[in-house]
Amino acid sequence: MRRTRKRMIAAVGAGVLAAGLATGSAAAAGAPKDGADVPGCGDSCSKAFDYDIGNGYTLEGLHTPAGPASEGFIATRHDDRLVSSMQLDRLRPNGIEHLDGSQCVREGARATCVIAGQYGTYSETVLALRVSNTDGSITVTDSVLHSTSSYSISDLVGDGIPDVTMVESTFDPTHATAPRYQLTYLLQAGKFHLTGCTAPSKDSQPMPTAPLNGVCFA
Asked: Is 105 helix (H, G, I), strand (E, B) or coil?
């Protein structure tokens, strides 16, 4: 499955957050410009988001220019000092080449985050992260990939935790012309749980504000 450039985004970059979610912060004055010190990132990177996750720690997302060779990264800093980093396009089974959405919420000694980005020609990946604000460690707890770049990150059940809606093609007769359907995933204990789907349709559908419970196309 590959991705297109056209996408529908409910939450993009830092600071586009539901109530109770951590706010995006401006780049720290003493930090190297746009992650130049992040291994593999270098001078070609630009910043996609930047969150204050508490105790002097920040989580930042970075990527190289969009295109077939785009590379995605996340990193944590403590008082401007790089603590840890991860190259997202190398993750398996589902990586991210170019970041285009994120939400984080603080939970005691950690932040729970959902980040999204393009992978391949037209696919979209969402990753669930746990990020420590005591040592800056980053753990990917789950991932989901679907064959279109339409998605939404939002709290679907009112618990303050970001959930995900994604869109899939039936591929009948082709990816580009086939009906599409939505799927909702609740993020619970670090894992994405599929709740249900809409019926496939060629008509545009608004992103849901509550979990779906319909039968999923198979």
From this structure: strand
How many structural domains compose the chain? 1
Give residue 162's domain range.
Answer: 33-197
178-181 CB contacts, 8 Å cutoff, 24+ apart:
180/148, 180/150, 181/216, 181/217
Closest by CA to 48, choosing from 24, 82, 22, 76, is 24
Does residue 5 belong to any structural domain of this protein?
no
- Name the nearest CA neighbour of 104 among 71, 132, 83: 132
DSSP 3-state of 16: coil
CATH at 147? 2.40.128
Q: Pick the closest to residue 90 from 37, 128, 140, 136 (CA basis).
A: 140
Q: Are the C-beta atoms of residues 126 and 144 closer than 8 Å to each other?
A: yes
Q: pLDDT (tens digit, 9 = 90+) per residue, 108-133?
A: 999 999 999 999 888 999 999 999 99
47, with CB counted inside 10 A (0-12, 13-18, 19+), is buried
